[in-house]
Specification:
Helix content is about 50%, strand content about 15%. By secondary structure, it is an alpha+beta fold. It folds into 3 domains: about 110 residues, Butyryl-Coa Dehydrogenase, subunit A, domain 1 (Orthogonal Bundle), CATH 1.10.540.10; about 110 residues, Butyryl-CoA Dehydrogenase, subunit A, domain 2; about 150 residues, Butyryl-CoA Dehydrogenase, subunit A, domain 3, CATH 1.20.140. It has a 4-stranded mixed beta sheet with strand order 1-4-5-8.
């Protein structure tokens, strides 16, 4: 039961059709294998690049496709419907590219952004540290000036594809305490003193590598400082607003996949001489599931339209991330329940969908943080 294309324009229909063809032929069948191996699906990322799907929302002058952010999120939703970890990787890649597009110099756009939009390079984003997660402004990784460059030292955690990406957007402290002391840097793989120290063993997203990163006096040239010194926290938050829409689209795609599986199963599974779906209680569960999916889809697309129009969308991004990921957790849990005992065994994909959904409630700011952001937008900061 794929999302309707009734209200999409010609370009959007083309992107969705291409994504569905790629999902049917490549991504969906490969997901279980990569998940079982806990292996990054690099060949699939390369295929996305060959299809021209790595830079949809970026300007053509920098190698992008010049498409709207709504169109890009349609792609993310379709990929998540087939294989969530792949969609998450593309979303994080786009988050890194967005920061360069919005805050980078002409040289950075030419030398880094163009490689990201073409898929020659993949990007990652690193803000969290062992002692600073939700309190991101408390980060302690140091960036010390050294002869026209910076020497970065510290530890980072929970970096998606941090050791697989070609360039990582790293936030480090170049000044005093608080947000104004944070600066953003583009750290390329191969930089001496920069490496992944541990790949996390996670509940879900098993084929989406999550890394602890070490910066041990890693030297980054001034040309790879992104934005002004002390402007890194503003860049980090702007990127997160954009990334939250990616996670919302991921959640809708994942929930749609779980619903589709539950619908098929309950229509085919017979108990007491009739299909399980003939029971009113089951039909009510299915009705609630599909209504939540449609509501989430409308919410994230509305937020993306605001972004495309150049309007403030940070409130709506937080709302979309909160609603869509909570909805995905409910829908995937119900999908497991509707499968009965079969939902609890790995032969059926819904148990993986439920494990994957939990991660979406945590990344790009936990849903408790989203509620804090929404409340602050509504009534102002707490006294």
């Amino acid at each position: 039961m794929p999302a309707s294309m009734a209200l999409l324009d010609e370009d959007q229909r083309a992107v969705v059709s291409l994504a569905r063809e790629f999902a049917a032929k490549e991504a969906r069948a490969a997901a279980e294998t990569y998940e079982a191996r806990q292996e990054d699906p690099l060949p699939l990322y390369k295929q996305l690049a060959e299809l021209g799907l790595c830079g949809l929302p970026f300007p053509e002058e920098h190698g992008g496709a010049g498409q709207s952010y709504v169109t890009y999120l349609l792609l993310v939703e379709e990929l998540a419907h087939a294989y969530l970890a792949l969609a998450v990787g593309l979303s994080v890649h786009t988050l890194c590219a967005f920061a360069i597009d919005a805050f980078g110099s002409a040289e950075q756009k030419r030398e880094v952004l163009s490689r990201l939009t073409s898929g020659e390079w993949y990007g990652a984003y690193s803000l969290s540290e062992p002692a600073s997660g939700s309190d991101a402004a408390a980060l302690s990784t140091k960036a010390a000036p050294r002869n026209g460059a910076y020497e970065l030292s510290g530890s980072k955690v929970f970096c998606t594809r941090g050791a697989e990406a070609d360039v990582v957007l790293v936030m480090a402290r170049s000044g005093g305490p608080g947000p104004k002391g944070v600066t953003a840097f583009l750290v390329e793989q191969g930089t001496e003193g920069f490496f992944g120290s541990k790949k996390e063993d996670k509940m879900g997203w098993r084929s989406s590598p999550t890394w602890q990163l070490v910066l041990d006096k890693a030297v980054v040239g001034e040309a790879r400082r992104l934005g002004e010194e002390g402007g890194g926290f503003r860049i980090a938050l702007a990127a997160l607003d954009t990334g939250r829409l990616g996670m919302a689209a991921c959640a809708v795609g994942l929930a749609q996949s779980a619903f589709d599986a539950a619908l098929v199963f309950t229509k085919e599974r017979e108990q007491f001489g009739r299909p399980v779906a003939d029971n009113q209680g089951i039909r009510f569960m299915l009705a609630d599931m599909v209504t939540g999916i449609e509501a989430g889809r409308a919410l994230y697309r509305h937020a993306a339209r605001l972004r495309d129009e150049g309007l403030d969308f940070s409130l709506q991004a937080a709302e979309a991330k909160l609603f869509c990921t909570d909805m995905a957790m409910r829908v995937t849990t119900d999908a497991v329940q509707l499968h009965g005992g079969y939902g609890y065994v790995t032969e059926y994909p819904v148990e993986r969908f439920m494990r994957d959904a939990k991660g979406l409630q945590i990344v790009e700011g936990t849903n408790q943080i989203q509620r804090h952001i929404i409340g602050r937008k509504l009534v102002g900061p707490q006294a």
